[in-house]
Amino acid sequence: MDLTVIVDGWRLMGPGLVMTIMVSICVMILGLFVGLLGGLALLYGPLPLRLMVRGYVDFVRGTPPRSPVRTSASWCGAASARFQRARVTRRWRWA
């Protein structure tokens, strides 16, 4: 087996690998920042801002933020009962 093929291939793919990792890190940081701002807007923002963020989460993304939590909570019996109580409490808070 000729090792020059591997070395030449690495020279071509190396910069692409580095760029991919850099873009991934930047997108993770940006996503963390946007998600943090959206969460803070849902908790502490004025009503019009909360409605806009809630609309984005519910309609554009298509999944309510509780769906993954509800699904994972249903896998655990005790956690599911606690989640149902928390969900009722949250509904009263937003009313």
Would you write up a description of this structure?
There is one protein chain. This protein folds into two domains: 1-62; 66-95, no CATH class. The mean pLDDT is 75. The chain contains four helices and no strands. 86% of the residues lie in helices and 0% in strands. It is mainly alpha-helical.
Percent of sequence in beta strands: under 5%
Q: Give the strand tally.
A: 0
Distance between the termini: 70 Å
N-to-C series of helices and strands: HHHH
**Weakly predicted, low-confidence segments:** none
Kindly state the percentage of residues in helix: over 70%
Q: Which structural class best describes the helix and strand composition?
A: mainly alpha
Q: Characterize the overall form.
A: elongated
- Backbone CA Rg: 22 Å
Note the total helix count: 4
Q: Main beta sheet, described? A: none
Name the average pLDDT. Answer: 75
| Whole-number count of domains | 2
Characteristics:
single chain; 95 residues; mainly alpha; 2 domains; 4 helices
Summarize the structure.
The protein is mostly helical and 95 residues long. It is built from four helices and no strands.
Topology of this protein?
Elements: H1 3-44, H2 47-60, H3 67-74, H4 77-94
